[in-house]
Amino acid sequence: MATEAIEQKNQIEAVETNRARIDDNLTLKTVSPKVDVLQILEPVRRKLASIEAERIISVIEKTIDKLEKVTLLPHISNNLSRFSVALGLELTCAIREHVRLEQHFYYTVTKLIEIEHPEEDQNGMHKVKTKAERYNNFTLLQQALGSSVKNIIRLFDGNPSACQIIQMECRARKPVCMGLILALKKLRNFVFGRLLISPSEEKDKTEFVENIILQDKQNTVIIATLEAELAAAIKDKENEMLKKNEIIRKLKNNLLQLDLFSEDSIRQIKQDSEKQQQGDQKDSEGRIVKLQEEIAQLRTQLNNSITEHRSTEQSLRKRKFKTETEIENWIQKYDADIEEKQEEYEQLIKIHKDEGILLFELESKIEAIESEYVQVVEDRKRRAEEKRIREEQIYLMGRAAVTIQSFWKGFKVRQLIKSLKKKKKKKGKGRRK
Fold this sequence. Notes:
Blueprint: H1 2-30, H2 37-41, H3 51-71, H4 73-78, H5 80-87, H6 89-116, H7 124-157, H8 160-167, H9 175-196, H10 199-432
Helix pairs in contact: 1-10, 3-9, 5-6, 6-7
C-alpha cells in the first residue's frame, strides 16, 4: 500500500511539473513585456494626419448630411403647411417646385412604361417620335430634379434653424433611408479607422494576429496532450481509489472486531475513572474552600485600595479639569491671536497688491519718461555737438578773416610804401634837373 501511494504521488507530481513547464513556455512565447495587445490592435493616432484623409472623411460626412436632408423631403412636402413658417418663403417655394417636378417626373415615367409595352397600331412612326421625346423629357426632368435637390440643400445650408427643425423629424424617415444612412455612418467609421492606420501599422497588426493564431494552434495541441495525460492520470487515480476502498473495507472489519474486544477494557476503564473522579472531587472541594477564603481576603484588600485611591483620583480629576480649562483658554487666546494675525496678514496682502499695482503704474510711467529722457539727452548731445561744430567753424572763420585782414593790411602797407618810394624818387629827379 505504501509503495502504491508513493508511486501515485510521483505520477501526479510529474504531470504537474510538465503542466507548469508548458505554461511557462506558453507565457514566455505569448507574453512580451514590451508589447501590449490592446495598443497593437487599437490605432496609434486619434486624429487624421493627412489632408487627403480629412477630405475623404469630410466628403462622406457631407454626403450623410445631405442624405439626411433629402430623405426628409417627402415628409416635409406632405406637411408643408406645418413647416412653411419655420422654413421660410424661399425654401417653401423651392420644395413646391420640387414636388411639381417630381409629379411630372412620375408622369413621364408612367408614359415611358406604357410606350415600352405599346398596343398594336398603324402609326408606328408617330410612336417612335413620342418615345424619343419622352426620353428627352425624362433626361431633362432628371437634370431638373438634381438641380432642384441641390438648390434645396443649398437653401437648407443657408438656414440652420430650418435644418434643426427638420432634424427633429428623423422618425418620419423610411426604414430603407434609415438603413442607408446607418450604412454610410458605418462606412465613415470604417474608413476613418482605416485612414488612422498606416500601412506599416497594418502590416504589424496582421503579423501580430498571425502570431496569435499560430500560438493558439500550438496551445490547442498542448492542451490536447495535457488532456490526454490528465485522462490517464484520472484513470490511474480511479484504479488506486478502488484499491483503497478495498483496504478501507478490510480496516472497517478489523475495527468492528476491535470494538467487540475493547468493550471489556472500556468497562474496566470506566470503573477506574469513577473511582478517580470521586477522589478528585473530594480534593477539589477542599481547594474550593481555600480559594473562597483567598477571594474574601482579596476583596477586602480591593475595597481598602479603592478607598485609598479615590482621594488621589479626585485630586487628579481636579488637576485634569484645571489643565483642560487652561488648555481651552490658551486655545481661545491662540485662535484670537491667529484671527488678528490673519486680518493683519490680509490687510498687508491688500496693501501689497495696491503697492504692486502702483509700482507697475510707476514703472510704466518711468519707462515712458526714461524713453523721453533718453531722447532729450540725445537731442541735447546732438545740439551741443552742432553748437561745438558751429563754434569751431566760427572760430576758424574768424582766424581766417584775421589772417586775410592782416595779409590785406600788409599788402596795402607794402603798396603804400612802394607808392611813397616812387614819389620820393620822382621828387629827387625833379630837383636834380
